[in-house]
Specification:
The complex is a heterodimer of chains A (197) and B (540). Chain A is α+β, with helices and mostly antiparallel strands and 197 residues long. Chain A is built from six helices and five strands. Chain A is 26% helix and 12% strand. In chain A, a hairpin with a 7-residue loop joins strand 2 and strand 3. With 540 residues, chain B is of the alpha+beta class. Helices cover 23% and strands 20% of the residues of chain B. Classes of the chains: A alpha+beta (197), B alpha+beta (540).
């Protein structure tokens, strides 16, 4: 619900007579267009012949499809803290937390779904993650034949990590888990679906 | 009323309360952990220390005392002057916060309390960002102290609220403090887990994430929840509660302060008794049967159909063959609308009070307390509104029957059309009793779950759970307590109040407050409602 306090009323800036002609703006725009035209005509074209030709991307900070990182032992690094889901401006991350059976961690994601169609690739999830478990990869050509297919689950996100770990290795996280609390003295079996991974 | 000066501001406060309580009621945010208005004062956390003006031992002049005094243990006295905004107080708060966080694992991202944790809030507002501790933190694994609660000892601030609650309110004494110094911890006695009907409250009194509810554990982060004030329908006590819900699902129930009924507590039965509302086998939409034909009418058509079928029967069989069975799970407003509809269609119709579920005996807390010392009551009468419905039946007059009489008479075939309201949380009608359906030609059943009665009904109306309705319940002490709607029904359709409003012949949207005003014209008891006061912002 939108409260009255949340609403900011702003006045549009008044334009003067010269600004209302819009001529300087049009000229500005045309300069940019003509510059590009000139470059394409007389120098190397600015466009690339995708998909035969692919552009070099900056791997470190390109914001493409997400991945879920694995820790040193190959388990999902996520601790199911919901920080990414909270930070997400479009609410495209859906997590279901469960109790983990590992000694060094209390929670783990039983389900971790990202709706890649809803996502706006802003990278807030990556910023929010306290254990650097979720990252955006340089992959941008994700396709699917249905909307359902574009909702990536935990296994798919982990497999994206497996596919991109050489291209973009996982950062060294400041925190790897949350040891201490939740430590249980007895050794327990890992949950079934994790054991396979 | 004593007047005191806090931070150069004159405040008028209640007699005999601690300065801390007076400051909180005046809207000041004074950090505190161990002080709880419903429990005894121990002054052990030292976070609420203040400076007070005292007479100088030599000159007798009023000066600021060099030592700090606990505001939770100092009762207000007319003319006293204290301050929280001073360097010494701030320094103490910083030092205390650093001390509390010495062994804290800083695991807020995976802690269920995060978002409603007073360690977070106070370290943000009053603490320091850094800890000077160089030693290894003490690690203390979580303990399973009972069937409902987990204890995370290394998040604990040793305020002993839980120990005092278990000693003073539930009176079951399961919790205690063991060891000394930095190794002090909360524990249960060997073989005696924390297991009593009020144990869920230790999670509420815990100001940090030390006591956590197993039922809610890892389910949701608390900032996703929205709270709606409500009344617990679990028993006739009518505790004030808050419904925490997200995505149209109820996630947990929390007690709400109500000085006349439940203070700040609620029982586990009420706290965890809401699960039935999310069961898949609930009746979702209205069903109309005529002979072998079965249809699902739209909500717009429904009032017309119900009215027509009743009028048809009254014409054929006479008005004295109509009966309405009201359930103690209905709100007063719904009861009134139903009576109004039935008595308009058939002025001689009989009204019946539905069965009142009784389970076990009344329980009083602290355990073994006699009348005056009782601080919390769980009643054997497991329905919220018997009194309210009885008031309505009395006001309506005419023929009123008990449920037993109704079953007996309808067995003899004395009623040709009946409106039976269920809405009970548990199965309420046995197979033998449900056979009366065969004797009633036009049976309208308004219920949550399938039953023998529903199977034999001509019209089935989905009753909604109390979280999906609005209205008021009258508790055993006679307080008319209104409550709000928290979530929408599972099918997104109309709720009892709305469709009864339409069936009773009104147009537009149902509003419990407006219906209550109409009721108050004829029934004086509904002129006064009781709404629990809202606590000042910084109390906990």
């Amino acid at each position: 619900m939108i409260k009255d306090d949340d609403i900011l009323l702003l006045d549009e800036p008044r334009l003067n007579a010269a600004e209302r002609l819009y001529i300087p703006q049009i000229v500005d725009g045309m300069i940019v267009t003509l510059r590009h035209l000139g470059k394409s005509l007389f120098k190397r074209p600015i466009t690339v012949q995708y998909p035969e030709e692919q552009r070099q991307l900056r791997v470190e900070n390109y914001r493409g499809v997400h991945r879920l990182n694995r820790d040193e032992q190959g388990r999902v690094a996520c601790v199911a803290c919901f920080m990414c889901a909270t930070a997400c401006p479009v609410r495209c991350i859906h997590i279901e937390a469960g109790e983990s059976a590992w000694d060094d961690r209390e929670k783990y994601p039983v389900k971790f779904d990202i709706d890649e169609l809803r996502c706006i690739y802003c990278g807030m999830c990556e910023e929010a993650c306290p254990v650097d478990a979720i990252e955006l990869t340089p992959h941008y050509d994700l396709v699917g034949r249905s909307r359902q297919e574009m909702i990536l689950d935990k296994e798919e996100l982990l497999s994206i990590y497996d596919g991109t770990r050489d291209l973009k290795p996982r950062k060294n996280p400041r925190i790897t888990g949350y040891p201490g609390t939740g430590n249980r003295p007895e050794q327990a079996e890992p949950p079934k679906d994790e054991a396979k991974a | 009323m004593p007047r005191i000066i806090i931070d150069n501001r004159q405040i008028e406060c209640r007699e005999g309360i601690p300065v801390l309580q007076a400051a909180l009621e005046a809207g000041l945010d004074v950090p505190h952990y161990c002080y709880h208005p419903s429990l005894s004062v121990v002054a052990s956390c030292r976070l609420c220390l203040m400076q007070m003006k005292m007479p100088h031992p030599k000159t007798q002049e009023m000066v600021w005392s060099p030592k700090l005094v606990p505001s939770c243990q100092t009762p207000v006295r007319d003319g006293m002057e204290v301050r929280f905004k001073s360097e010494a107080v701030a320094k103490n708060q910083k030092a205390c916060m650093e001390f509390f966080l010495l062994n804290h694992p800083l695991d807020c991202p995976v802690c269920d309390q995060a978002g409603e944790c007073y360690l977070q809030d106070y370290s943000y507002h009053f603490g320091d960002a850094e800890s000077r501790m160089v030693d290894q933190k003490l690690v203390n694994p979580k303990k399973d102290i009972g069937p409902g609660t987990l204890l995370y000892q290394d998040r604990c601030v040793m305020c002993t609220r839980c120990v005092r609650f278990i000693g003073e309110i539930s009176g079951t004494h399961e919790l205690c403090m063991v060891h000394r110094g930095s190794r002090t911890e909360i524990d249960v006695f060997p073989g005696l887990p924390l297991d009593n009907p009020l144990q869920g409250n230790v999670v509420d009194v815990c100001p940090v994430g030390s006591m956590l509810d197993k039922d809610f554990l890892f389910k949701r982060r608390v900032w996703e929840l929205s709270g709606t004030p409500s009344i617990c329908p679990g028993c006739a006590t009518g505790c004030s509660i808050r419904i925490d819900h997200a995505d149209n699902r109820v996630c947990r129930l929390k007690p709400r302060f109500n000085p006349k009924v439940n203070d700040r507590w609620m029982c586990d039965e009420g706290r965890f008794g809401f699960k039935y509302i999310h069961e898949a086998n609930r009746i979702a939409s209205p069903i109309v049967r005529r002979g072998l034909e079965q249809t699902t009418p739209s909500w717009e058509q429904l009032p017309e159909i119900v009215r027509f079928r009743f009028q048809e029967h009254v014409r054929r069989n006479g008005a004295e063959k109509v009966v309405a069975v009201l359930s103690p799970f209905m709100t007063c407003e719904e009861g009134w609308l139903l009576i109004r509809f039935i008595r308009t269609i058939a002025p001689e119709a009989a009204l019946v009070m539905g069965p009142v579920p009784l389970e076990g005996e009344d329980q009083y807390f602290p355990v073994g307390a006699t009348s005056k010392a009782v601080k919390f009551t769980i009643l054997a009468e497991k329905c919220p509104n018997r009194r309210g419905i009885e008031m309505l039946l009395k006001a309506a007059g005419g023929t009123t029957l008990t449920f037993g009489e109704f079953v007996e008479q309808s067995g003899k075939g004395e009623f040709s059309s009946a409106w039976v309201v269920g809405g009970y949380a548990k199965p309420w009608i046995d197979k033998a009793t449900a056979k009366i359906a065969a004797n009633i030609e036009l049976l309208v059943v308004q219920d949550i779950f399938e039953s023998g009665l529903v199977a034999g009904a001509a019209i089935v109306l989905p009753a909604r759970a109390w979280v999906e309705r609005e209205g008021s319940f009258v508790n055993t002490a006679g307080l008319v307590q209104p409550f709000e709607r928290a979530i929408a029904p599972p099918d997104g359709g109309r709720y009892d109040g709305q469709y009864l409003f339409e069936i009773a012949g009104y147009e537009g949207l149902f509003s419990a407050g407006r219906v209550r005003e109409m009721m108050a014209e004829s029934i004086s008891a509904f002129r006064e409602i009781y709404e629990a006061p809202v606590l000042p912002a910084h109390t906990h």
